[in-house]
Specification:
single chain; 223 residues; mainly alpha; two-stranded antiparallel ribbon; globular
Length: 223
């Protein structure tokens, strides 16, 4: 399960039966039995959800890290910054994306951000909000975005003015949105596309070609 699913599971369990040994073990294992890079990416993608943070879960589950990288990861998740446990080899290895995101918080140059997105394979979930206003940054993220990510972020891309008539980025977005194979692989629901279409049409920078792509995607999902 990803971080969002973990938060949902904890919230449901706490509501229904409280915090027991089974739930504590499940949460602790989520942090300590998977590859550190995978856990770090999940935390970066979803640092909090529905009022819960990873600091909350760590405080309640008390996972016991087994490696230096795990200790550094849990310290960062609990304290919000890379601490003394994040040695140079750990930062250059398992926590390289965490290191990049921490650097992005202080970045003042778009070229630096673009370079780090490429070098560290960062996703849109990992970027500070201020850099999501950049059309160049969104364009650099497009190649690695899933179908659902593209649909969910149409408004953000429109806000950044990435999606305009007759440009390469728009052509790529449209091509991916009407790709039957990508649609089927995503498992996207008709209701999600309907919500995305309604929100996008209401946007002042909505363009016809993207609306057409949403309509075509809806037709394919309905068949």
């Amino acid at each position: 399960m990803d971080a969002r699913e973990l938060f949902r599971t904890v919230n449901k369990a706490r509501t229904e039966r409280g915090w027991g040994r089974a739930l504590r073990t499940l949460v602790a294992d989520w942090y300590t039995t998977r590859p550190v890079r995978e856990v770090a990416a999940d935390i970066l993608a979803c640092p909090e959800y529905n009022g819960w943070t990873h600091r909350d879960l760590l405080r309640l589950a008390h996972p016991v890290p087994q490696t230096q990288a795990q200790r550094a990861l849990l310290q960062w998740a609990a304290e919000g910054a890379l601490g003394h446990l994040a040695t140079p080899d750990v930062v250059a290895g398992e926590l390289r994306q965490v290191y990049a995101v921490e650097r992005l918080k202080r970045a003042g140059d778009e070229r630096e951000v673009l370079a780090m997105v490429e070098q560290y394979s960062l996703t849109h979930h990992m970027l500070p909000e201020e850099w999501k206003r950049s059309p160049a940054v969104w364009e650099s993220l497009l190649t690695s975005m899933s179908y659902s990510d593209i649909v969910e972020n149409l408004i953000a891309m429109a806000d950044s003015e990435l999606l305009v008539e007759e440009c390469e980025a728009t052509a790529l977005v449209v091509a991916r949105m009407i790709d039957r194979r990508r649609i089927q692989a995503s498992g996207i629901a008709e209701e999600e596309l309907i919500r995305a279409r309604a929100a996008y049409i209401a946007h002042p920078r909505a363009i016809r070609v993207v609306v057409g792509a949403l309509d075509a995607a809806l037709d394919m999902v309905r068949r």
